[in-house]
Structure formats: structure tokens, C-alpha cells
Design goal:
alpha/beta; four-stranded antiparallel sheet
Amino acid sequence: MEAARTVVELAAALDPVVDERGSPKKQETAAGMPILQPTDERRRTGSHYTPRTLTGPIVKHALGPAFERLGPVATPEQILDLKVCDPAMGSGAFLVEACRALAAKLAEAWARYPDRKPIIPADEDEELHARRLVAQRCLYGVDKNPLATDLAKLSLWLATLARDHEFTFLDHALKSGDGLVGLTQAQISAAHWDTSKPGLPLFRQLVKDRVAEAMKDRAEIQAAPDDTGRAIQEQRHRSLEARLQDVRLVGDAVIASFFSADKPKAREKKRAEVESWLTGSLDKAWDKLVAIGATLKQSEHPLTPFHWEVEFPEVFARGNGGFDAIIGNPPFAGKNMIANTNRRNFLTWLRAIHDPSHGNADLVSHFFRRAFAMLRQGGTFGLIATNTIGQGDTRTTGLAPIIAAGGSISRAIKRLRWPGAAAVVVSVVHVFRGQIRSPVLDGREVERISAYLMEGELDDPPALLGVHSRKSFQGTNPVGAGFLFDDERALKGETSDIATMNKIVEADGSLRSFVKPYTSGEDVANHPEHMHTRYVIDFGDLTEDQARSEGGALFQIVERMVRPVRQKDKRAHRRVNWWKHGEPQKGLYAAVRELAFVLVAPQTSPHLQIGRRINSGLFASTVIVFTFDDMQRFSLLQSRCHEVWARFFSSSMKDDLRYAPSDCFETFPFSREFENSPTLEAAGRAYHVHRAALMIARNEGMTETYNRLHDSTETAEDIRRLRELHAAMDRAVFEAYGWHDLAARAAPVFLDETTEDDHTYQGRLFWPSDFRDEVLARLLALNAERNAEEIRLGIAPGMKGKARDEEDDEVTADDD
């Protein structure tokens, strides 16, 4: 009752339609009453509420398949048997919209079947009476925030307000708890989160009986006439809650055992202990179960599990169980936000219940998985998501496994700017449990919508291509700054300075072979000719005795500055071989031994920057090295075509591109005849020659040069020419692929927040989003085609005898 009083106080304070006692004001009518949509701090959209411009279409298309299934002659009983849920309901805007939509259908059914139309009370009209029945029988909602639950009730009360009637009873349908943390009835019966476990026979019957009893009480609440007193409904609700108390308690105890430990073995030990209590005397077990369950309420982030099948049993116990529609705007949160705002092991729990999934996926992908699991066959969910729902780990955690499990994306808006002032771009996705025809993507019918939220058949990540194997590498990571001679870091005491190095090698010329130029990603990006600014000590494969004997003063530096650090390293081979580079990348230097020049790129940079550099010395792990230097491949890699691919499949560091060879290069399908394309070679050479001359003339590196290229206010002739040559190179790349239509339309424009939703491309001279999507879709299809060819030929990576050689490719955090 305390929560009810809180809501009454909120109602009295925030809306004039109720008095201080929570009773409807008799001089007001319910028709057209505004729906309260207060601020909900859980939302990551930056908006105070989900506007009706979004809730209306989302609810319409989520309910559409259910209405279509029932057909034009649906009976009132069939309409009232529909079940609709918002799993993160906030203040209830979606449920209010669903209430309106279902009530309208119910009124239409009454018109078709007038003998089934109830008597409409004097203080209600037909539409209002329909809304009251729908709210009590069809709508369900959950939120982890109890205040949000109260606000959702208030919203629905205001939507169903009748002058002489008490508020619609909603306690059985709108509940508080974490919708992502809970067990099914079978899992509770088994006392295990693993559904493959057989369960406990005696306890299984207890769970079954309690849930069946609760269903009877819930049926009485839902079927109660409109004039049933609230006190009667509350008594029924208390009765069913009491029946479920023990079942919830066991579910909470099992979940508490999961969250009690970091390691699987320790979790299983605690869970087995809970199971042992249940197989003994139940009378003695309850106090222990209460105690372990209570631990979920403790600590900085208390947790209230929500066991969907126990709380809403009539939804799942019916034939073809599950919700007909699920709607809403679940919260968005990245990996760090998930960790910081939830209790320990929350992310581990999500990954355990949603296999496959990735730790870097946005939280909303798990709401997608939960929603799909709770749909009945033929049901649809319509949810708002972060606009990364079709990208990277969020895609492989959410949409990709949903489609693999039999779901179909029936409608999608890939990029939608949030209505109002919030500078937020979202995706709106409807998923049907089953197969769908003629889905709608961004307002147009297509053959199929993929997990990338693009037209096409491809849902999985692009395949590694054997043709690119061992042709791109990250450079050496010495694992120990003491190996370096670096003037800047020497000032901080982290390395030796270059003057010291010169003195050492001048004093003993035999040591010169142990000191090599060391080119970093910063050198590649910022030096006009990509030249090194540091040196590195390298004893190669010498034994410790050999290095000590031959290395002289250089060995003494490494022993003094590197050995103490490496003795603390977790990896045994680094501790033992402390005078050797931790990640030497021998494969790289073997692959480029015969080359005079190589193509290089900084691993992390604000732009895709491919340079051509003399092959000398060692490259740092912050450099990507390609084992070729021809202008055809340069054109392909430096083109916007490749940049679209690289930005989509790479990770990012702030707004920078973080180029990973396995994700960006080894999957990228080259045009088949690129080596025989004089146009491609000429375009790349003209571009590279002009860029090189421009950088030397300005004494600026690639980063500053591309900053100018993307600056719409930069009008210098040399930059204008670079833009022209870049566009010409892009067109040559498309022609090499045979995509003449794309070549004819490849026109980069300066993008800003008014023309581009993705902040990654804002402030750049690039192609608009629709064109980028078309390019990406074709590249994905080509990747799949090339992979299929390699599989037929038996040369695809991962096939027998074709496993990717990982020797020396292991990359660690850079300490150079």
C-alpha cells in the first residue's frame, strides 16, 4: 500500500484529474486526457520521454502480425487474449499506446458482435471501457526501478480514468525487478541456471502446483468485472503472491549462488549447496534460502531477480506460449557502464544466459535476446536500440543469434534522429518469430533484412580470406621501454637518450649491429617521410651468455632497465628470456626481407593513413606493415572503399580508427583483376606522388594533411588537388571491381551533424550514409563469394592444414 500511496501523491501533485485522496475529480472527464511521461533517468537517449511519434508506429507494427493472424472477424475474446509487454517500461508510454491500439480493436470487435458487448457504465464511454479492460487483461510491464513501475501505473490510470470508478487494478501486471536476471520454471525446478539439468522430482511438483494455484488467482483478477472493488483485487493479489513466495525464494537463491563467486567452480559449489538444502528437509531449508537470497539486496548495487514464467504464468502456460508483442525503449549501456552500474558478475551472467554473446556488446542486445525468447511463435517485438545494434559485438550478441534461432527482421529504421533537442541517433527494429515476406527497411520493401540492418543474406562476420594470410602484421613489441633510445621518454627516466646510444656505438663499433632504427605509429602518421625518431636494442636469438659477452654496455642497459620489469611479467618465456624482445614478430621480417619498400599504417589514427616507407630497421607494434608496396594495392587500401570496411569492422579508440589486420585487412576482398589494372596503378601513383610532395613541402605528416583534406574551410590549391586525386582513385577502385554504377555516383561531400547521423563521419569529406551502406553490402557479398571459393579449393583459413600461423603474432599492450 505504501507504493500505492506514493503514486496517489504523485498523481495529486502532477495532474489535476485526481484529488488529494487519489479519487478522480468528478468535474473532469477521461476522454482525451494527457498521459504523463516524466523524466526517466535510465534512458540513454537523453530524452525526457519516448514521444508518441515513436511509440505509435512501434506499437502499430509490433501488434500488426497478431491482428493479421486474428483476421477481420476477430472476436472480443480473441482481442482480450492478446498479451503485450514492455520489459523495461519506464513511465509506461509504450503500454499506454498499446492500450489505445488494443482498445480500438476491441471496440471494432464489439461492433461486429454486439451480443458480446458488455454494458457500458454511465461514467464511461465505449472507448474508455475498452481501455480499462485491456489494461487489466492484456498489458504487462517490468522495470528494475520501483519508482518507474509506480509511474507506469499512474500513466495507465490516467489513460483509463473513469469518474465514478476506482483505478484499474494493475499490480498483477506491472511489476518491479530486473528483467534480464531471472529463471524459467524449469530452471527453478532444477535449482540450476543450466536448462539441460533434469531437476529435482519432489521440488518440481511443488513448483508446478504453486504456479498453477497462482494462475487461478490471476485469472480471477483479470476477469473481474469493471466494478469490482479494489480491496477485493488486492486480497486476491496478496493470496497469489503468498503462493509464489517459496518458488521465488528458490529462484533467488540459485541466482545468488551464481553472483556469489567469480569462478565457475566456486559458483557451482555454492549452487550444489542450495540444491542439497532442497533435497533435504524443506522445513529446514527456508531459512538458509532466505539468507542467501538476501545477499542479492546487499552491496552497492542491489538486485531483484524477475522470474518471468512465475510472475506471468498465464502468458507462458498457454498453447504456443509467450507474448504476442513486446515493445519498448530499453536502456543502452556499453561494457564499462554495465560494469559500473550493476553488481559484480552481472555481465558474466548475461553472457552465461545468452550464448553466444560478447562482453563488449551493448546492454540493449541482451534485451533483444530476452524479448525474442519470450515471444510466442508468430509474435513480434519492436524495440528502440542504439544505432550500433547492427554492428560489431552488439550485432553478434543480439540480431545475429536471433536470426539464427528462427527470427526475421520484419521492419527496421537503421538511423533515426531522436525527436526533439537530444543529439542522439537510434535504430528501430521489429523482429518476427518466424519467417516474414517483404520486410521493410528504411521505408522500402526489400527481399530480406540482415543482422547488419542492410538488405542481404549475410548475418555473420566476414570470413578471413586465405589469399591475405601472412601479408599484414603488427610490428615488434619489445615489452620493456628500457630497450629503447628515445630522447622524449629519456627526460622522464623511462629510456636512454640517443646521445647515449651514439657514445656507446662510437666507443665500440661492434655494438652497432645490436641497435636498429625503430619506427612507431606516430612516426608513420606525423613525419613527412614516415621516418623513425627512435632506436631499439635487439639481441635477436642470442643466448643470455652470448648477449652478455657480445652486448657490452648495451646489455648492461637492458639488464638494468628491462630485467627488473620482466621478472614481474606473468608470462614465463618473458621472465626467462628477459634480454629478448617479448613479441619479436619474426614472421613479419621474414616476409619483407626481400622488399626495398613496404606499405605501412599507424595502428591508431583519426584517419585511414597508408604510407609507403623504405624497409629498414624494426617496426613498433603501433605500426601495421603490409608485405607489398605496389600502387594497385595502395589504391585499394587507401581508398574510401576500404575505409568504409575498416571503420565498420575495427574497434575504435575515442573517435580514432584502430586498425586490426585480422578484422580490417584479412577479410577485405580485393577486386579480382586489380594487378592487371593500369588505371588503378596510375590513379594510386598520381595520388601518392602528389601527397608525398605536399607533405614534404608543408613539412607535415599524414595526420595533419588529412585534417586539411577533411576541413571544409581549407581552400589551398594543393589540398584541393589532393581531394580530386582521392576521388579519382576511389572511382578507379570501383571500376576495378566492375561496379561502374558506384563509380559514377561516388561523390564525397562534407558531412556535418545536419547531413550525417554517425559522429564517426561528421566533419569528414566522405560519402553519405546510404552510399556507404551500399558499398558495404557489396563488399560483404564479395567476401562471402571469395570465402566459398576458397572452401571449394581447400585453401580457406581454418581448413585442415590451413590454420593461420599465429607464431610471433601475439600482441600485447604496447609499452614502447
